[in-house]
What does this fold into?
Amino acid sequence: MRLVIVLALTFLQPGKPDLLRDSVHVTSAAARPNNELWCYKCRAEVPDDKCADLRQNSSSLIHKCMNEKRICMVKRFSYTTSTENSTTALTMWALERNCTKNCEPGCIVIGERTKLYSCTSCCATSLCNYGSGAERPCTGARAISVLFLQLYVFLS
It folds into this structure.
C-alpha cells in the first residue's frame, strides 16, 4: 500500500504538469475559426440581369457563407459563333455567384464554329466575387469533362 501512495505522489508532484488537469482538448471543428466570409449569391441568364452587372445596388445579393464554404466564386457560361469571315462577340449564356468549398479557376473552351466557354474565378475575401468570371482558357479532354460536369451542376 505504501508503494502505491509513493507512486501516486511521484506523479502528482508540484511543478510537474498533470495531463488531465493542465491540457486542453479541442476538436478540429472547434479549433477552426468562425466563417466570416460574405459573397455575392445569385444566378443570371441574361446579360442585363442585376447579378451579371454588380455596378448597380447589389446589397440584396450579399450572402453569408456557412460551414466549410470559405471561397467566393463566379462561374460564367458563354459562347461565340464563327463563319469563314467573322466571329461574333462573346455572349453570356448564364452566370452564377456563390460561396463554395472547392473552386478551380480557369476557362474551358470547346467547339469550333460554335465555341462554348465555361469560366470560373475564385477568391477568398469578402465580396470579392464581383467580376465576370473570365480567366485564361484551358483545353483538352479534361476540359470537356469539366465543362459537362459544370453544366450538369448549374442546370440541376
Notes: The two ends are 72 Å apart (CA to CA).
